[in-house]
């Protein structure tokens, strides 16, 4: 069992440095993808403020399929290239969306979500899936979140067998 250290009140770069450190501890000695994705989503959801969903969609054929997450029930299948998750997967670039209702083709799994960040998970040339985080706050995510979550995703990818 791991006790989580609170990151509340720390500047964002320090929050993410602490979360990466905690993730390393959670993943130590475990390479199973489902276990690691489940713990990673719980770590993010319970550590970062202002979230209403944190989890993963996994690349399967020409779509993304719901993986481990924390939050309300979610859309199960998303087409590549559609919505924020599908755009991040198809473009292989992180998407930071200040207002999801202004994003062309946004897929509203939870109408309470207002902003979103999606980080593609790529090992070598292979698209594994995406890390998706939603917030009910407008403009919740910024460049510091992008950098921190991309670092978080790199640690997860290095420590996990997909």
Automatic annotation (TrEMBL):
PANTHER family: FREE METHIONINE-R-SULFOXIDE REDUCTASE, GAF/PUTATIVE CYTOSKELETAL PROTEIN
InterPro entries hit by this protein: FRMsr_CS (IPR000614), GAF (IPR003018), GAF-like_dom_sf (IPR029016), Phosphatase_reg/MetRdx (IPR051330)
One Pfam family matching this protein: GAF
GO CC annotations on file: cytosol
PROSITE patterns: UPF0067
Protein name: GAF domain-containing protein
Every GAF domain range: 15-162
Taxonomic lineage from the root: Bacteria, Thermotogati, Deinococcota, Deinococci, Deinococcales
Family per similarity comment: Belongs to the free Met sulfoxide reductase family.
GO MF term set: L-methionine-(R)-S-oxide reductase activity
Membrane-traversing stretches: none
